[in-house]
Amino acid sequence: MAIDKPLEGKIALITGASRGIGLAIARRLASMGARVSLCGRDAKLLESAEKECQQGGSQAIAIVADVTRPADIAKLVETTEQALGAIEILINNAGIGYFAAVQDADPSKWDDVLDTNLKAVFLLSHAVAPGMMRMGRGHIVNIASLAGKNTFAGGAVYCASKWGLLGLTGCMAEDLRAHGIRVSAVCPGSVATDFGLPSARNKNKMLQPDDVAHAVEAILTQAPQSFISEVLLRPTQKP
Q1: What pLDDT, on a 0 to 100 scale, did the predictor assign at position 199?
Q2: Domain range annotation of the chain
């Protein structure tokens, strides 16, 4: 394994990989030598992401899938393994936001947010864990949020999904660590993407997608005898 390609030969599946944080992570893992499977719902954006990841010579495939649908998840895992090999790295990044005061919130949005931000992580992790267990190794990294640790007005639905995600992550880590599988969470503050709370925040002071990708890189390059269970990521200046 080349020093500058620490993930050479490893297969990584990244959800929400067509833009923003997911795309930054996909590019980073491809540059580290991983063969990457990119999942998203927008075929055109995914095609562009696939080409970006291939520019450095890495193998990349794009798969259109809705991770809230069990049938799509089964097909996503099957297609990835057939094209690239056994999945050793899973990045659960796909997520949506919805912000409203609890008394004004649209109840239908509860299922949309919880299904994407929480249930989909369980379903996809449940689908890939048996393969990782057979290999005796693996990484699952869940992209959570500081909203999973802090409450704020208008954040009831979104915060509930991210607090739940951190609970799920901790339990998964305990369930899977004996099988050589390391489960971690990255909790960024506001990131300069097209996702997030509408505000007049200075995007130059916000976290950038590559900052989150750097945290994921650190997690994936830990020595075998340890793992980073959680990363809290904040900008140096408040936006």
Answers
A1: 59
A2: 11-223
Are 126 and 168 a contacting pair, CB within 8 Å?
A: no
Q: Give the whole-angstrom CA distance, residue 66 versus residue 43.
A: 12
Supply the pLDDT for residue 177.
Answer: 97
Of the candidates 158, 164, 172, 189, the residue annotated as catalytic is 158
Homologous superfamily assigned to 11-223:
NAD(P)-binding Rossmann-like Domain (3.40.50.720)
To which residue do tokens 């297609």 refer? 79
Query: Nearest to residue 175, comparing CAs of 132, 135, 146?
Result: 132
Residue 98 a catalytic site member: no
Contact by Cβ (8 Å): 93, 33: no
Tell me, yes or no, if the pTM score tops 0.85.
Answer: yes
d(CA 35, CA 166) in angstroms, rounded, equals 27
Q: Are 89 and 37 within 8 A, CB to CB?
A: no
Q: Are 187 and 149 in contact (CB under 8 A)?
A: yes
Whole-number Å distance between alpha carbons of 45 and 38:
11
Angle at alpha carbon of residue 100, lines to 99 and 106, rounded to 5°: 105
What backbone torsions phi and psi does residue 63 show, to the nearest 5 degrees?
-130, 120
Give how far the C-alpha of residue 129 lies from the chain's centroid of Cα atoms, to the nearest Å. 15
User: Torsion-angle region of residue 122: left (phi > 0), alpha (psi -120 to 50) or beta?
Assistant: alpha
pLDDT along the chain (239 residues), means of 10: 83 97 98 98 97 93 98 98 98 96 97 98 98 98 97 97 98 98 97 68 86 98 94 91
